[in-house]
Write a structure and sequence with these properties.
Bound molecules: coenzyme A
Order of helices and strands: HEEHHEEHEHEHEEEH
CATH topology: Aminopeptidase
Number of domains: 1
CATH architecture: 3-Layer(aba) Sandwich
Strand content: 25-35%
Number of helices: 7
Distance between the termini: 29 Å
Radius of gyration: 17 Å
Structural class: alpha+beta
Number of strands: 9
Helix content: 25-40%
Shape: globular
Oligomer: single chain
CATH superfamily: Gcn5-related N-acetyltransferase (GNAT)
Length: about 230
């Protein structure tokens, strides 16, 4: 009988450095992940960091809407959308074995664009210990070194000093500044978003050695030829 990672190679991917490991989200991770979100994600002193305030939805286990039901649909849709042209890797971030956050890596028309977009968050209790910088360095390294991306783009809401600092420390440089709409508790408001981009020329690698498993199988699965 084939293993789960032979059937769906993203499940066999592991990107690690020091005591941090990134692996594609599995259903078994959901209880710990839901608990983490319920304990809080964003720093209330900073602007709301996301397009939609999914992390502020009241916990309603098994309910028709809200958290975690709508987030589940989103996380599972990422897995279903994993094909050569467009793919999502929802990477669960563990530090010392505990789930601390999530790091997304997303590509559209990848064979042509060779560009990935990243987004990330950590549970509030795990902020400010260098984990945000390390997880993004690992994600960018995965994209540039293993998945043969040419550039990685990201964005942060103006005033999100933590995300801006992480971007700078990973080697992103500022791109365009755009006006976007954020949704929070049924209200839509406008905000400035700063786009950022990193390439091999500016990328700052993790200080610790990086350990990667399963990248060749993921390249084959996504049709990335060398
Ligand atoms: C953004 C985020 C991932 C950063 O992770 P983190 O582990 O807290 O960041 P780090 O500890 O790696 O810190 C990186 C830098 O940010 C700075 N920083 C962290 N919080 C800060 C704050 N509130 N104000 C100013 N700078 C801050 C740190 O000082 C550090 O810079 P330094 O090393 O030069 O001192 C985390 O804060 C988070 O999950 N926030 C909520 C979601 C979010 O904003 N996601 C990103 C946008 S989609």
């Amino acid at each position: 009988m084939p293993s789960l990672s032979e059937i769906f190679p993203p499940f066999g991917l592991s990107v690690a450095a020091g005591s941090m490991e990134l692996r594609v989200l599995r259903d078994d991770d959901l209880p710990e992940l839901v608990d983490l979100v319920a304990a809080g994600v964003a720093d209330p002193a900073l602007p709301m960091p996301f397009r939609a305030a999914w992390h502020e939805e009241p916990l309603d286990l098994g309910g028709p809407r809200g958290f975690p039901t709508e987030s589940l649909r989103w996380w599972w849709s990422q897995r279903a959308a994993c094909a050569s042209d467009e793919w999502w890797l929802a990477l669960v971030v563990r530090a010392e074995g505990r789930i601390v956050g999530l790091q997304d890596v997303h590509a559209v028309d990848f064979p042509l664009t060779r560009t990935v977009e990243t987004g990330s968050w950590l549970g509030r209790e795990h902020h400010g210990r260098g984990l945000g910088t390390l997880m993004r360095r690992l994600a960018v390294g995965l994209a540039l070194d293993e998945l043969d991306a040419e550039c990685c783009v990201s964005a942060y809401i103006e005033g999100n000093a933590a995300s801006a600092a992480v971007s700078r420390k990973v080697g992103y440089v500022d791109g365009e500044r755009v006006r976007i709409v954020q949704r929070r508790r049924g209200e839509r408001t406008a905000a400035w978003e700063q786009r950022v981009v990193v390439t091999r020329d500016t990328y700052v690698r993790p200080e610790e050695p990086v350990r990667i498993e399963g990248a060749a199988a993921v390249r084959r699965f996504l049709g990335i030829e060398r």
